[in-house]
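Bench notes, afternoon.
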Amino acid sequence: MKRRGLLMKKACMLALCSMLLPHAYETARQRLIGWPQQEVEEGLIPEGLILKKQGLETAVDADAMMVGETSGTATSQPDNSSTRVIRTGRQASNAEGPGREYEPVMSMGIPIIGYLGGSKLTLLANQTNTQMLSVLVETNQGHMIMIDGGTEGDSAHLVESLLARGGHVDTWLITHPHSDHVGALMDILKHPEYGITIGNIYYSFAYPSWYQENEAYRADLVLDLLAAFQTLPAQTLHGDIFKGQEIMVDNVKITVMNQPYLYTHNAINNSSVVYLLEMNGKKAIFLGDMGEEAGKQLIADNPPEKLKCDIVQMAHHGQDGVGFEVYRILQPEICLWGAPSWLWNNDSGSGMGSGNWKTIETRKWMAQLGVPYHLCIKDGDQIIQ
């Protein structure tokens, strides 16, 4: 028991160090662990830890901060202690439906270091209690690429983040015109005194009448966004992007994967434009809020080898987005979740699983697919570099 207590104390010290000093993680791991492989196999040493953070459990894989080859998802062992042992590894499923026999994956809450070869990706955290998507990518040369940007309530944090990096966004990509994706951008465009400048904005929208016919209560937002665009020079706006178009920003190649799919069901979500970013041998796909119908069309229009990625932004914040088959084809090892705590836990106010959202179902899908690393906005700004 004394030996187990000492080992667990070392494990907790490692986890704390990884959060406070991520760049020193590997050195700390070598000094603190020193764990014989036999002890790992016997279950005396956790291959990963579950840490209590703001009342929620956050999974931390022992090699998560220095990602190389990964072995799969984490599943828990019964334990009554506050820190439980978890094991990693893919599982075969006999379930009748995707993910049914799996425990939902858990988020890491700590940076992933040494992955993007000099580039950097930051999943910005929500500043209000709503779902949102705001992703900042920095090239090897330090130029900025934004994907969406979040709600108007997220604008101050976004502006602060951009100004800390010089304030000029080279390329702004828009997946679709919903307020939880473009609200912050609209606020920035209406307030030039914030000091943010933008070189290029890429998007593809339907005719205004289409929004009026399919989601009339959101049609005014589209008109407001288009009006805000008029504050910019004409050469900044690229509203005619097309499937297969490639955009280069330093070492980052951006590929437009689809024209908007104009379904009448779940209309604006399904009209999301998907972007593939390639940087230093890694691929990241951003699905926006794409729904099941458009997801099926996406994999019909693109061969699997073009969709295979290392990082995926979970469609519609990880719930009621694209189907299981899309993620099976994408085969990511890192998932980005634009979900606040209530959505991550499917909590409508009466505890985990009390809501009608499908986040837990999607988390089980990721467990079945063996996706090992999950970054979620509920844990604050999330970094891959």
